[in-house]
Automatic annotation (TrEMBL):
Guanylyltransferase that catalyzes the activation of phosphoenolpyruvate (PEP) as enolpyruvoyl-2-diphospho-5'-guanosine, via the condensation of PEP with GTP. It is involved in the biosynthesis of coenzyme F420, a hydride carrier cofactor. One of its GO terms (molecular function) is nucleotidyltransferase activity. It catalyses: phosphoenolpyruvate + GTP + H(+) = enolpyruvoyl-2-diphospho-5'-guanosine + diphosphate. Belongs to the CofC family. The keyword Nucleotidyltransferase applies. This is Phosphoenolpyruvate guanylyltransferase.
Length: 223
């Protein structure tokens, strides 16, 4: 993990309870959807912790399994606020980050980036030179990362059309072509197939191995 004295960013990753998360994967992965949601969050967190520009990773969640998993790899858990929604959870996490890590900028990062590379995240963070910056998702309408410089409100506007909403609020899009893993969030089976092509993290790879085993009738037999 980065040197706590010099790393300029604190990351906030919101994770919904995985029993209800990733509903659009349910038809393709009815048995493994919750496991995939947990795996995405853990792989995203692990990659974020490897970036030398990341001072700390705060996971906002009320899922006890996710909380235990991310704590084990070095993240801090911030309990979610009931009924606050995604943007409320991010505001809550950002306030905690500003209080606990003064002087660091705050970054909201999607928990659904199973192919995330620490090197690509680092490149995206290094490009965040405006007061507020953001990364547009692969489809081009959503947001996978929103960064606010120290002392600047995060002002998250995640949801349908968030890329346009963030740009309209004054945030500057990051125009890098080498950060595909930062842009590849997963909501659908097609998204996941693309992430697998990019190369997913170990937790997601393990679940996908179970998925393939179930599909061929050999689940649990792989070594």
């Amino acid at each position: 993990m980065a040197d706590l004295q010099v790393a300029p960013w604190t990351l906030v990753i919101p994770v919904k309870r995985t029993a209800i998360a990733k509903s659009r994967l349910a038809s393709a992965y009815p048995q493994h959807r919750p496991e995939l949601a947990r795996a995405f969050a853990v792989d995203t967190t692990a990659a974020a912790l490897e970036s030398p520009l990341v001072r700390a990773v705060l996971v906002v969640t009320d899922d006890p399994v996710v909380a235990a998993d991310v704590t084990a790899i070095g993240a801090r858990v911030v309990p979610d606020l009931a009924g606050a929604g995604l943007n409320g959870a991010l505001e809550h996490g950002a306030a905690f980050a500003a209080a606990e890590y003064p002087g660091a900028g705050v970054v909201a990062l999607s928990a659904d980036l199973p192919a995330l590379r620490a090197s690509e995240l680092t490149a995206a963070l290094a490009a965040c030179t405006a007061d507020r910056s953001f990364v547009i998702d692969e489809p081009g309408t959503g947001t996978t990362m929103l960064a606010a410089a120290p002392g600047v409100p995060l002002d998250p506007r995640f949801g349908v059309g968030s890329a346009q909403a963030h740009e309209g609020s004054g945030a500057v899009p990051i125009a890098l072509v080498t950060i595909g893993s930062v842009r590849r969030d997963v909501d659908t089976a097609a998204d996941l197939a693309h992430a697998v092509q990019l190369g997913v993290g170990p937790r997601t790879a393990d679940v996908m191995s179970l998925v393939m085993g179930a599909a061929t009738g050999t689940e649990g037999l792989a070594c």
